[in-house]
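Q: Two folds, back to back.
A: First:
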Amino acid sequence: MRVLVTGYGGFLGSAICRQLIQQGHQVRGLARSEYPDMQKLGVQTIQADIADAAACDTACRGCDVIVHTAAKAGVWGRWEDYYRTNTQATIQLLDSAVRSQVHALVYTSSPSVTFAGEHQSGVDESAPYPSKWLCHYPHTKALAEQAVTAAAKNDKLHTCSLRPHLIWGAGDPHLIPRVIQRARSGRLRRVGSGENLIDVVHVENAARAHVLAVQRLAAGDSQLNGQSLFITDAKPIACWQWIALILQTAGLPVPTRSISYQAAYRLGAVLESVFRLARSSQEPPMTRFVAAQLALDHYFNIEKARRLLGYQPEGDMKQKLERCADWLQQLAKQ
């Protein structure tokens, strides 16, 4: 099978490519940068912006399935930038896929597309999209997810959306380095009690879910077509316990200072206003979205993924953290 992976050089995208290649599939990658390590593995690469329509047409041509992981992540920035990369580029890719007669598309969404600033305690895919958004990333991802779902209705393209939550593992360029950097700089605080439960997903589990979706959609699975699925390790953990495990494995002390959720949320609102008025591209040290994510439950029911994908998370969290120890300790020294 010929599979196009957008954002193929990213943390999740590269893991998906490796698993696809191990299974004997031909992989083509589309990204703005070059990734020589992926080329050595056999990925046929195209260097271009996902928002470039001509590049999308070229990348889709001759492919059977697309895995669309490319996105603009983060909690701060201009609406135009998020909308262009996350929403418009996805719609454009769907159009290119249809023109190129690609059979299926697997979209990497996010559980935050259902986050309305309240506890998400074991919620499933019946949770609605919110009417108000705390930042542009989940809003533009939700709009893209809706386009992916709508595309499944015209019988020209089979689609599904996967919502992996807090992807982690050695080489993670976002979540874990951010925690360690804040701890080292003295800017990390526990928000609220820290006992709120969260879900995480190891990158290999998240990648395997995508590969399973590729296989199911390529085989014409009508039950999966048009569906959205939460993907986690299915082992909720207290937020501060998770952060403490990361820091302890990295050889760093766990901060003892804390701030109430209400105070952190108000601080985030003030800082957002100040940074917006200043037209600053720098992310504020606290935002409403970050405060809510640190203080509220966000764990999910993955029975639908088990049923439709045959997905079963593998591995023990503490063992996987121990295997990351050298990498974490190197991060802590940087």
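A: Second:
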Amino acid sequence: MLYSALDVLRQATGLPEALVFEVKPSPGLAKGRRPDAVFVVQIGRKLKGQWDRARSARNSDIVSLKLTRNVFVAEARLSSQPRFLRSSISYLKEAVASVPRGKPLIVTRFMGPAARELCRKEGVSYVDTVGNVGLFLEDGFVLKESSQGLRQQRREMKAMFSPKATRVLRVLLENPDRAWGYQELADAAKVSIGQAYNVVERQTGEEYVGPTKAGVKVLKPAELLARWAAAYSVTRDNRVESFYSDEVSYRGLLEKLARGADRAGVRYGFTLFAGASLIAPFVRTPQVHLYVVGDTAKLAELAGLKPVASGGNVHLLQPYDEGILNPLQTIAGLAVVGNVQLYLDLVNYPARGKEQAEELRKRAIGY
């Protein structure tokens, strides 16, 4: 990990020379941590033997890197979640005080967006093995985000917002002021207690969720909601079937669809502008979207819908997970998805979806 990251660093700085390593004893920077070794990394053109000898050494905890007038004291970390990163940042800031022109540097496998933001706020340089670099130098800075890093970030986001994980997050974000025990959180989200625990642990590492005396609760609801929204698309992540209805009344169409769902024995929940029209109306549109869990063909038949290839005004969405319908809210006798899901569906939707989402957030979500 250490050498891959330093190779990324060499490329990012544009230096043509090879980085050459010389392993020396620790100069007392660890202060009780007792690293395996301290690496003094200098710019050089030869001494391949030193390079090979450094590769055979164990990963160190401390690295001192000299780039022209800049000296970095760095810690190599396996995890770069913000919760764990804070201790490294605090330690490194203390350690560099004994190094002339010393600057802190984090070396890790992958530095996610929240961790990179934390480092930038703290003025701590970072480099990871996939190509993300942030160097804060005496006479400038270097920032780089790699395409490989973006792919890794997408994989991280996919795991962070898996179907079971989003069941738990939806419950937490719908109740931002509530503290939960693990069993009651699992029951509310309809997952196992082990799954609830794993989701909370991951989000605690990202500092979006954390323990309190009363139980676990969401600590940064707005930031977590924004992170989720960046990873989600209502039309990409759910299957959509389009139909046409000749019902002239918008309210009449909603009621007809609700009656059809009841008669078909399917679960439903209005979303997008149809759902927003019942909670925080702002943008008017003839389009109606609703999630359906069950026989969509039977619902379409009972509601008098005609299938179309394009140009429909009724769109039945089969959700990527049934947790989308937990919770449901009843407005004037009609079922609507929860406000968090409604916001997620709207915020990246074209044709003024973001405007409607922000109006919903202001009037119904509150964070």
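Q: And?
A: DSSP finds 15 helices and 17 strands in the chain.
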